[in-house]
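Supplementary Methods, section 5.1.

A reviewer requested that the exact input to the structure prediction be made available. We therefore reproduce it here, unchanged from the version used in the analyses.
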Amino acid sequence: MPSSLTDPSPNATLSEWQAAYTRLRAACVALEERTEKRLVLLKQQIAQRKEAEEALQRESDTLRLLQEVAVAANQAQSVEELLQFALDKICDYMHWPAGQVYIRAQTNEGELVSAGLWHCADDRYNFLQDAATAAQTEQADWLSLAQNQDRPGWLDLTENPLFARTDAETAVNGRFIIPVLAGDEVVALLEFFASETADLDDNLTQVMEHIALQLGRVIRRTQAEEALQESRRWLRHLAGWVVEAQEEERQRVSRELHDEAGQALTALKISLELIQASLPEELTAVSDSLNDAINLTDETMESIRRLAHNLRPPVLDRFGLDASLAGLCRDFSERIQRPISYQGADLPPLPNPLATTLYRFVQEGLTNAAKHANATEIAVNLRCKDGQLWLQVADDGQGFRIRRQRSQIPHGHGMGLMGMEERLMLLGGELIIDSKPGEGTQLTAVVPIPEKNHR
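The structure derived from this sequence is encoded cell-by-cell as follows.
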C-alpha cells in the first residue's frame, strides 16, 4: 500500500504528488527541530555533568587539602615545618605561582618578620622573593596593614613598581593574605602572589580560614608547651638553688656541731676525768657519778658526730654518690642491727643538687623501712638506663595500701617522702611507690641524667 507521505499511487495527479512532497518536507523540518532540541538538551546535560564533576573534584581536592593539613598539624616536628607544608599545599591547590611566610619574632616589639619559608612553582617567579626582600620599608607598612586583617583577603600590587613585569605571563597583580591568629593576636601571615585577584567564593574563604585556625591552634599549643618547658627549667633551677642553700646551711650547722660542740664536750670530758683522777679513793660514789658523766659525754659526742655526719656527709663531696650510698647503708645497718644490701653502679659526675637529693632519698627510705615497715631485710639498688638514673629502696616489711591520689605516701610515714617527691619532680624526675599489705615496699626514684653528664 503506498505511503500517504511519499508514495502516491501511479495514477496520482500532479497536485497529489505536490501535496505528498509538502507533507514530507514538513516532516523533515519537524524532525530537524526535534533533533536540534535534543542536541541542545544533550549539550546542556553534558555541560551540567562536567560542572558537577569539576565541583566534585574541587570538593575532593578541598577535603584532601584539609585532611593533609590536619594530619601535618598533628605530626609536624616544628611550627616552621607545618607552615612550610601549608604554604606548599595552598600554592598547589590554588595554582598560585609563589608564596612565603612571615612569623612573629620573639622580641619586645613582637614584629612580623620573614620566616625564610618560600614556595615557587616556576623559576620565572624567583624575582618575587628578591622584590619582597628589596621592599623592606614598604614591607613594614604592608605588614602593619596586613596584620590588622582578621580574615583572608587580597592586597593590590598593581601600583607597586617593585613587582611590575613587562612579561604578561609572569605579571603579578596581587597578594593574597591568610592571617594566622592565636587568640586575638596575628602570630603568622601566609602571603601568596597571584596574577589575578579574583575574589574567592565563600566556600574557599572558609577553607582558608579553617586552615589558618588549625595553624593558629598548633602555634598557640607550641607556645604554651615552650612556656611550660621554660617554667619547668626555671623550677629545676630554683630547686637546685634551694637544695644548694639547704645543703650549705646543713654544712654550716654540721661544722659548728663538730667544731664548737665537739670541742666543748671534749674539754668537758677532760675536765671530768681530771676531777675524777684528783678525788680521794674514799669518795667512791662521787667517782662513780663522774664516770657516768664521762660515759654520757662520750655518748653525746658520738651522737653529735653522727648528727653532723648525717647533716652533710663529707664523703659525698669527696667520692661521689655511689661511695656515699655504700657507706650510708653500711653505717645504717650497724646502727639498726639489720642487714642492708647495696648494689651500686658506675656513675658519671652528677650535679650537686641531684646527688644530694638522691642521697637524702635513700636516707629517708632507710629511716622509713626501719621505723615503720618492721623489715628484716633492706636492699638498695642503683642503676643507669637510657639516660635515666634509677635508685630503689626495697624492704620485706609489712607494706601498706597505696592511696589513689597524687601523693601515694601513706599516713604515718612522715613528711620526708612527700618533700622528696616534690623535690624529685622539680628535678624532672618522679617517685614510684609499689607496696601491698604484707608484701613489703619498693620506693624508686627515677631522674634524668643531665645531657652533659651522659657517658
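Residues 202-278 form the longest helix (77 residues). These observations are discussed further in the main text.
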